[in-house]
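Submission sheet (multi-component)
Chains listed below:
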Amino acid sequence: GAGVSQTPSNKVTEKGKYVELRCDPISGHTALYWYRQSLGQGPEFLIYFQGTGAADDSGLPNDRFFAVRPEGSVSTLKIQRTERGDSAVYLCASSVDRDSPLHFGNGTRLTVT
Amino acid sequence: AQTVTQSQPEMSVQEAETVTLSCTYDTSENNYYLFWYKQPPSRQMILVIRQEAYKQQNATENRFSVNFQKAAKSFSLKISDSQLGDTAMYFCAFMKRPSNTGKLIFGQGTTLQVKP
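Outcome: structure written.
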């Protein structure tokens, strides 16, 4: 079946602009995760959704970052007033539940100029 | 807090030979999962192998096997009969069990190049 889909694949934006990154998880997966991967580093946890609610948002770096999952399926990561330090690959993953293996998408490469 | 360390930024191996990637971790937890993920240039993280901490037997998946040393907090990945398609970045990762969030803690990664 279809895997985790992330759009856009690449996004270039100017410093100070607002961006939205979309994640479409595997159908039936209740758990959804966002990770951020800086160049040459391992992914770092941002936020975890169980269904529609954010069960753990402890990884969000500051209040410019926000994520939603209104119907328990598609999720959107929103970044306000982007900064050059926000440049990274943003990975989305989903799983059947929080104890099951994560399935990752191909990520969105965000570049802030 | 848990940490995962991969001390080999880059490794190379000849096709058909065997290579071992190292990983150490630090935790006070007794029950957890350990993982190896592969990330090719497509950026997708692909699960290679999973080890449950309470199982003494080392996990294997075809050409991939691990050497899990719980007391030493070491978790190395052995790739046998290396293939060109194994060229990728490899990440070691930790997950506490039971997990309220399914959160993975990743190491810094090891770039593996398989040479023809």
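Remark: Residues 55 and 74 of chain A are 16 Å apart (CA to CA).
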